[in-house]
Every structure is written in C-alpha cells, then in structure tokens.
Amino acid sequence: MAGSRLEKLSTIFSRRFYKLYGNPDVVDLTNEQVKTTCQKFIENYFKLQDQEDVAEEDLFQKAIANLKAQGIRLRTITEKESEEVAEAEMSSSENRSTDSTLKTEQTTNNISNVNTMDHYGVDDNLGSSNKS
C-alpha cells in the first residue's frame, strides 16, 4: 500500500515538475545509473518531507532551491521561451545591422571607385582616359 502511494505521489510531482520545467535533460537510456533532474527532484522532495513538517508547496519550492544550489540549472518553460524569443530578436537585429554595414561598405566602395575614376579621368562608358 505504501509503495503504491509513494508511486502515486511521485507521479503527481513529476507531472507538476514537467509541467513547470519541461524536460531539462537529455536522457541516456543506456545508463540507468544516471538520474534525471526530475528523479533528483523527487528524491530531494521526499527527503525534505521526511526531515520537516512543511506545507506541500513549500517542500516543492525547497526541493527546487536545493537542486539549484547543487548547480542544476532549472528554467521554467516560460523562461526558456522568453530566452528563445530574445535570442531570435537579437539574431534578427544583428542580421539587420550586418546588412546595413554591408550596404554602407558597398556605397563607400562605389563612391571611392567613382572618385578614383574622376581623378584619373577614366570615362565609365568608354573605359578610356579623357585627360590629355
């Protein structure tokens, strides 16, 4: 009975964890010794639950804080999406800036070429010198 209750709680918390954080791991199915972040979260949650008499929400937050303290980077799905949008906007902005720089360089080169041709008296249409 206790085992099935534990499995049910584990399922509930893993569902809540995945709903909030998505799947932060690449899972190596060939190595059963490596625990996923969600498994670490569940273990941490139950360990805290055994040690403290704290409300469920507080335990959830403490378990998350403990994972972060262990150096595990957790970002909510919303945070990930915001970062992706910001990166896309930055990339788009950089592309526009690069395009603008290239156009400026092309214009500068064209002006320089015209000035050089004028200086040496080269007729653009004929390709010959007009100066005697």
UniProtKB/TrEMBL annotation:
<dbReference type="GO" id="GO:0005840">
    <property type="term" value="C:ribosome"/>
</dbReference>
<dbReference type="GO" id="GO:0003735">
    <property type="term" value="F:structural constituent of ribosome"/>
</dbReference>
<feature type="region of interest" description="Disordered">
    <location>
        <begin position="80"/>
        <end position="132"/>
    </location>
</feature>
<feature type="domain" description="Small ribosomal subunit protein mS23 conserved">
    <location>
        <begin position="16"/>
        <end position="71"/>
    </location>
</feature>
<dbReference type="Pfam" id="PF10484">
    <property type="entry name" value="MRP-S23"/>
</dbReference>
<dbReference type="InterPro" id="IPR023611">
    <property type="entry name" value="mS23_dom_met"/>
</dbReference>
<dbReference type="GO" id="GO:0005739">
    <property type="term" value="C:mitochondrion"/>
</dbReference>
<protein>
    <submittedName>
        <fullName>Subunit ribosomal S23</fullName>
    </submittedName>
</protein>
<dbReference type="GO" id="GO:0006412">
    <property type="term" value="P:translation"/>
</dbReference>
<feature type="compositionally biased region" description="Polar residues">
    <location>
        <begin position="98"/>
        <end position="116"/>
    </location>
</feature>
<dbReference type="InterPro" id="IPR019520">
    <property type="entry name" value="Ribosomal_mS23_met"/>
</dbReference>
